[in-house]
Every structure is written in structure tokens, then in C-alpha cells.
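User: Hi! I'm working on a homework problem where we have to compare a predicted structure to a textbook description. Could you give me the structure for the chain below?
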Amino acid sequence: MQEGENTMDAAAGGLALIFTLLFMAFYLGMIIFVIWFMITIVKNLKIQTKILENIEYKLDAQSTQKTYE
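Assistant: Happy to help. Predicted C-alpha cells:
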């Protein structure tokens, strides 16, 4: 082997390493984003459920008052 070929192999290996690391970072970033998104959705659904329960309670209270009047 000549010295020029070793340099090319090292450059190709380095480039492959960089692409591999970038792909792994992108892949892990997507996983973290999906987990964060699911947690956020669950929190928002819990908040919306509490709001709907309060609305239901108030509507029930109003309908009960109207029946007694």
C-alpha cells in the first residue's frame, strides 16, 4: 500500500464516523422529541379534563337550580 491510499482510507473512515454520529444524534433527538411530545399531550389532556369536569359540575348545578324554581 502507498501512503496516499492510507490517507484516503483515514479520510473515508473519518467521514463515515461523522455521518454515523450525526445520524445517531438525529435519531436520539427524534426519540427525545417524541417522548417530550407525549408527556406534553398527557399534561394538556389532564388540564382539559379538569376544565371539562368543572364545566359539567357548573351545568349540573344550574340545571338543578332551574328545576327547583
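For your comparison, note the following. The CA atoms of residues 48 and 57 lie 14 Å apart. The chain has one helix and no strands. Good luck with the assignment!
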